[in-house]
Amino acid sequence: MRAAVRYGALGLVALAVVGSAIGALVAGLAGVWGALLGAAVGGGFILFTALGVLLTAKLPALTAGAVLLGTWLLKMILAIAVLALLDPLTFYSRGMLVGVVIAALVLVLGAETYGVLGTKAPYVEPGATTGDADPDGK
Lesser CB count within 10 Å: N end or C end of the chain? Predict the structure, then answer.
């Protein structure tokens, strides 16, 4: 999962740079702000999920699921609040914001998928016994 977070973060930084350059060419300073805000909102939304999975990996499945569900709900509330706060403001390009949010979602999810699929993990626990062993280890 660390590789997924690393690839996602690197992809997000690259998207922020490229999006800012395109935004500057298309809409000037407002395009740069739109691209940076889009990268922060879209990429942050996905990266926080991967970080949540990484941080809850050692917890029991029920606890990890509850934490991930809670963080998902919190992210939804925060995304709605950020977009509501940005709605009346005019210093950014809405087109660049929407375009970079969509690009960030696709790029970061793709980078994280590449990171997860490229990671080699054992299918079994090292040193674990198989068969019908006594629960006391006898």
Answer: C
Within 10 A of 126 (CB to CB), how many other CB atoms are there? 5
* Rounded CA Rg of the chain: 20
Matching residue, tokens 């991930």: 68
CA atoms of 65 and 49, how far apart (whole Å): 12
The length of the chain is 138
SS3 state of residue 89: coil
d(Cα 92, Cα 43) in Å, to the nearest integer? 18
Which pLDDT belongs to residue 110?
82
Exposed/middle/buried for residue 46 (C-beta within 10 Å: 0-12, 13-18, 19+): buried
Mean pLDDT lowest among 10-14, 50-54, 75-79, 96-100:
50-54
pLDDT, tens digit (0-9, with 9 covering 90-100), for 45-81: 878 887 888 888 888 888 888 888 888 898 889 889 9
- Exposure of 40 by Cβ count < 10 A (0-12 exposed, 13-18 middle, 19+ buried)? middle
Q: How far apart are CA 128 and CA 33, in angstroms?
A: 53
